[in-house]
Amino acid sequence: MTRDGVVLPPARQFIGGVFVEGAGGIEVVDPCTEEVVAVVPEGSAEDVDRAVAAAVAAKDGWARQLPRQRSESLHAIADRLAAEAESLSVLESVNTGKPLMVSRDDVGQAVDTFRFMAGAVRATTSLAAGEYAEDHLSVILREPLGVVGVVTPWNYRLLMAAWKIAPILAAGNTLVLKPSEQTPLTTLRFAELVADLLPPGVLNVVGGYGPVVGARLASHPDVDMIALTGSVHSGRAVARAAAESLKRVHLELGGKAPVLVFPDADLGAAAAALRVAGFWNSGQECGAACRVLVHASVAGEFTERLVAEVRGLVVGEPWDGADVEVGPMVSKAHFERVTGYLERARKDGVRAAVGGDPLDRRGYFVAPTVLVDVPEGAEAAREEIFGPVITVETFTDEDEAVRRANAVPYGLSASVWTGSTRLAQTVPARLDFGTVWVNSHLVLASEVPWGGFKGSGYGRDLSLYALDDYSRTKHVMQHRGR
Ligand code: NAD
């Protein structure tokens, strides 16, 4: 597969079921070549207002559809995505430089998200009706919220869009989605592909910058909920803007996943798993296994194994082959952010056992890196670097491991590696993270929830919990005798 046959979507806004011209121009850059691949409109608050009006006009009709009818639309979307899987993967890789194995996985998971929500919406129910007060019958209804505003990040454009669009539509809402200004292409292509499968106005896409388009969505009085996947900084901005209209807020924010390796763990399996879980999507992954806490008694052996795995990673452009595991950082700004962390870590006395520098080639490539001699509280082990970098710290007992794992503002995901049944149960219970894997890391499924605690936000993507988040509960109580 090459990038030559890439199908670019219309560089316009998708409002009311059609593509419309937008003013201004944001350059979309291929991070492998540093070349501009498209110029997309820079949306305005007025564009958002037009899109919200279209979503409001469409909401009653969509909400009235039976679950079966909405389910059929979602299955049709899944079929369309599946039929275009390869062209979508290429487009995703052109826009972000991500290896084809990652793009293909993204598209496959996006298809599965639509299929799961298509089935789930037909099976979900609310509490059964019942008599809880004398002479009164209670009926509990599950209703759509209305119009949902969605803001997505650059790291998984198509997949994060699918994680929002599928449950929002399944639950009977309409939406206006703002993709990341850096990576809008697959979201626009998605809109193009499904335009004839949804009534006009049910799905709208307005590109542009966060503080303009995202902020207007968050404050718009006719938007009933705002859902954002992105950084803590953007999450705070959205929650503040949403406060005035008291709309619901759903936030999937950053992460800094600790990986607790106990002395009785299968060290080889852990190191091999981290080769994937630490460097998937070039480490630009909110659940990345980026912070190892290993028992001091096995730290030497484990680090050796991990470094050997990381040395073996295949780095390159997507078109270099299907075996490429690590690509470039998504943008120049992000490349500078990641290399800035590496420079400061070096000044703080932290040593790179492998990598530690940018790669000497075109594009925004950083060498896969393992940082060792990392002291407690070091910046590199505390903050989200969001690049191909794993830090290794050591601990001496279970309490210390748990205390230090929890000592970050994030609470998205973590993993525990042990051969002990007791530790496999007691340690996850003590960890403040929305997902805890045992002897695994970064395995997701449409049936199970994804979302964080603390600074990683609130609300859940995937699973029946997402359908709940995008619905409201109404109690109707009727007197039997009147
Ligand atoms: P970002 O916060 O810079 O941008 C995310 C989106 O928010 C973009 O569309 C941006 O335009 C928009 N935005 C920025 N300022 C805004 C404002 N004031 N109001 C409204 N919208 C605004 O994040 P990013 O750099 O695109 O993505 C990386 C971040 O996303 C990382 O922190 C990562 O951990 C997080 N992330 C989390 C998950 C999860 O499931 N928890 C998944 C993917 C990414």
Uncertain spans, ≥5 residues at pLDDT below 50?
Answer: none
CATH architecture of the largest domain: 3-Layer(aba) Sandwich
The coarse overall form would be: globular
Structural class per helix/strand content? alpha/beta
- What is the count of distinct domains? 2
Order the strands across the largest sheet as they lie in space.
Answer: 14-15-16-13-12-18-19
CA radius of gyration is: 23 Å
Number of strands: 22
CATH superfamily of the largest domain: Aldehyde Dehydrogenase, Chain A, domain 1
Q: Could you tell me how far the N terminus lies from the C terminus, measured between alpha carbons in angstroms?
A: 70 Å
The average pLDDT is 96
The quaternary structure here is single chain
What is the CATH top level name of the largest domain? Alpha Beta
Largest sheet: 7 strands, mixed
What is the tally of helical segments?
Answer: 15
Fraction of residues in H or I helices: 25-40%
State which percent range the strand residues make up: 15-25%
CATH fold title of the largest domain: Aldehyde Dehydrogenase, Chain A, domain 1
List cofactors, ions and other ligands.
nicotinamide-adenine-dinucleotide
List the helices and strands and how they pair.
Blueprint: E1 13-15, E2 18-20, E3 26-30, E4 35-40, H1 45-64, H2 67-83, H3 85-96, H4 100-123, E5 130-133, E6 136-144, E7 147-151, H5 157-170, E8 174-178, H6 185-194, E9 203-205, H7 210-219, E10 225-229, H8 232-243, E11 248-252, E12 257-261, H9 267-277, E13 289-295, H10 299-311, H11 332-347, E14 351-354, E15 369-372, H12 379-382, E16 389-395, H13 398-406, E17 410-411, E18 413-417, H14 421-430, E19 435-438, E20 453-454, E21 457-458, H15 463-469, E22 471-479
Helix pairs in contact: 1-7, 2-4, 3-4, 4-5, 7-8, 9-10
The structure holds nicotinamide-adenine-dinucleotide (NAD).
The site of nicotinamide-adenine-dinucleotide has 33 residues, from helix 7, strand 10 and helix 8.
